[in-house]
């Protein structure tokens, strides 16, 4: 089984649903690994939202192998482009890791005030998703949570714990593009 097949098999095992591969051909995709793709997992008995996930953003030779996923209330080809862009930044710009943030350069979906993403632990799926041991090391599977500029600023000033406390206090809906900022 090759690297991306291992990653896809891990997602399938944890989420117990088959994905579809999402085609994308714009931009500098030639800079990404040849087996890179974005997978879309439909809602299922355990989850009422769509899940979009990178597959092959990391490679077997990476010392810090990371894959990302995010949630959506609906199918959205814009999220495929977003994950291709984030993967491109990871491969050609700065290596991303837990608690890092990325600037989406546009709203997450529609008119959403969430224009950034926070790389977080996969709280909804836990360590079962987070860690895949491989002969080359451990692949980390993290959650890319769309956040607002104000939430990003709170993280910068007060730290991740303060931001997560605000999320918890507000009971924020991570899959609602129209959600208000918790700040």
Structure, explained:
This protein has one domain. The chain has five helices and eight strands. The protein has helices at 3-15, 77-92, 127-130, 149-158, 160-170, and strands at 20-22, 37-41, 50-55, 65-72, 101-103, 114-120, 131-134, 137-148. Strands 1, 2, 3, 4, 5, 6, 7 and 8 form an eight-stranded mixed β-sheet that branches. Helix 4 (149-158) packs across helix 5. The longest helix is centred in the middle third of the chain and has 16 residues, at 77-92. It is globular.
Key phrases:
183 residues, alpha+beta, eight-stranded mixed β-sheet, 8 strands, 30% helix
Radius of gyration: 16 Å
Structural class per helix/strand content?
A: alpha+beta
Helix content: 25-40%
What's the tally of helices?
5
Head-to-tail CA distance between termini: 45 Å
Report the β-strand fraction as a percent range. 25-35%
What string, H for helix and E for strand, traces the elements in order?
Answer: HEEEEHEEHEEHH
Total domains: 1
Outline the biggest β-sheet: 8 strands, mixed
Low-confidence stretches: none
Outline? globular
- Total number of strands: 8
């Amino acid at each position: 089984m090759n690297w991306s097949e291992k990653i896809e098999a891990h997602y399938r095992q944890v989420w117990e649903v088959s994905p579809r591969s999402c085609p994308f051909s714009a931009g500098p995709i030639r800079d990404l690994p040849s087996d890179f793709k974005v997978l879309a997992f439909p809602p299922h008995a355990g989850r009422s939202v769509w899940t979009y996930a990178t597959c092959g953003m990391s490679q077997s030779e990476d010392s810090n192998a990371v894959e990302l996923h995010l949630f959506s209330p609906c199918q959205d080809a814009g999220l495929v482009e977003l994950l291709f862009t984030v993967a491109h930044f990871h491969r050609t710009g700065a290596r991303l890791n837990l608690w890092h943030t990325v600037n989406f350069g546009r709203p997450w979906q529609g008119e959403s005030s969430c224009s950034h993403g926070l790389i977080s632990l996969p709280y909804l799926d836990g360590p079962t998703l987070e860690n895949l041991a491989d002969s080359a090391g451990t692949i980390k599977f993290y959650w890319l949570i769309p956040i607002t500029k104000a939430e990003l600023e709170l993280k910068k000033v007060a730290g991740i714990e303060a931001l997560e406390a605000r999320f918890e206090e507000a009971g924020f809906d991570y899959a609602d593009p129209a959600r208000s900022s918790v700040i």
